[in-house]
Design goal:
399 residues; alpha+beta; Umud Fragment, subunit A; five-stranded antiparallel beta sheet; elongated
Length: 399
């Protein structure tokens, strides 16, 4: 009933050696296998005879043989660190695929709830002594606000050949300006092409208007990252200077698990993909959009006047996010039409059918949303926006 401790340990060792032989059979030579099995037989005989001293001796020999048959890996520290990194990557991919996914706000359609990229151009008439901040301030502003300072100078007489957009690590986008004169070095601007071209009053740097770059210029063979100009702009009769800064769009986490356990809720900010929505790029490309979910299946929605509130099922909407748009922001507009509407009106009375959802931007007057391209199918829903994780000044939950 009460077995000696050395016999209990011997039993565990015997079991461990048997597992070792099973797991390492592809790595052990025939000679090593025979040596281990012979020593294991001697060990088991000593155990059956309850020869304590022989059991201890053969246990040491058996352990030593097993250890020497499998060589230690070279650079074990490097190997262990690589294994940890590999496991961390697998976990991160799993979390991104099934739980949380990062998403960057590219436009201003949800402002001021969520910021897209916002640019501010320096006016030399107001501040002729403008200079780029110090390296320390530049680094801190980048970390805390996601701010990128722009300070470019296009030399007199230069003719722009093309703009090329480059994205690294999916989140860091810059634009490089190339010139027809190969002796002129290309210029890097650390903002997306869209924001470099976009008008100042719409959050851009306004380069297209400033140089009167022709609309006849176009993207190359369907590529949206190379825009050819070929000198189609006003002559640069003196050095052209563009200074200012751009604040990055808020980067948010999307809860991809939530809709597996509950129905989407009216009033929450949500993310969806655009595949199959004909009004967005013909429904062929799958992009991710973020809007406020203002209508769920069975709802009847109505906007009765520009800048007014949203009515749901004949009553004023009561959800916090929707109410805030009409009371604190600029309200909802009816100037955009619904794709396919027979009278091409703006949002008047819309009845949502089964598995149809209605998306509206909080910046209603500058948002391409369900008023323009129709409803979002249930199968396109990704999840609710959870929180802003960067820049730090906007850190917090999304409401």
């Amino acid at each position: 009933m009460f077995r000696p401790r050395y016999l209990k340990r011997a039993k565990l060792l015997r079991k461990g050696v048997r597992k070792f032989l099973s797991y390492k059979k592809d790595l052990l030579s025939e000679q090593d296998k025979e040596e281990i099995e012979d020593k294991l037989e001697t060990f088991e005989r000593a155990v059956s005879e309850k020869d304590k001293e022989l059991v201890k001796l053969t246990a040491k020999e058996l352990t030593s043989i097993c250890e020497k048959t499998v060589k230690s890996p070279r650079n074990p520290i490097i190997r262990e660190n690589l294994e940890v990194i590999f496991v961390a990557i697998i976990i991160a991919i799993g979390i991104r695929s099934y739980c949380l996914q990062p998403f960057r706000i590219p436009t201003g359609s949800m402002q001021p709830t969520l910021n897209g990229i916002i640019c501010d151009v320096h006016d030399p008439d107001k501040d002729p002594k403008y200079s780029k901040p110090s390296l320390i301030k530049t680094a801190w502003d980048k970390f805390s606000q996601g701010r990128t300072y722009v300070d470019i100078r296009i030399p007199k007489g230069a003719r722009i050949e093309k703009f090329q957009e480059v994205t690294k690590f999916k989140f860091f986008t810059s634009t490089r300006i190339y010139f027809e004169n190969e002796n002129l070095e290309s210029i890097k601007v650390s903002v997306p092409l869209k924001n470099l071209f976009q008008e100042k009053n719409r959050g851009g740097l306004g380069l297209r208007s400033a140089l009167n770059i022709g609309r006849s210029s176009n993207f190359s063979n369907g590529r949206m990252d190379v825009y050819w100009v070929n000198g189609n702009h006003v002559p640069i009769e003196k050095d052209f200077v563009l200074q200012g800064h751009c604040d990055t769009g808020d980067q948010v986490l999307v809860n991809k698990m939530s809709y597996h356990f509950r129905k989407p809720s009216r009033g929450e900010v949500f993310v969806f993909n655009t595949k199959g929505i004909v009004g967005i790029g013909g429904g062929m490309k799958s992009q991710h959009y973020i809007k406020r979910l203002c209508g769920v299946p069975g709802d009847e929605l109505e906007i009765r006047q520009n800048g007014g509130p949203l009515y749901v099922n004949g009553k004023l909407a009561t959800e916090f996010g929707i109410v805030r748009v009409s009371e604190e922001y600029d309200g909802y507009t009816i100037t955009r039409r619904i794709t396919g509407a027979p009278d091409r009106r703006g949002l008047n009375e819309v009845s949502l059918q089964e598995e149809q959802y209605f998306a509206l931007g909080d910046n209603s007057d500058d948002s391409a949303d369900s008023r323009m391209w129709g409803t979002v199918p249930e199968q396109n829903l990704l999840g609710p926006g959870l929180m802003v994780y960067w820049p730090l000044e906007h850190w917090g939950r999304i409401h």
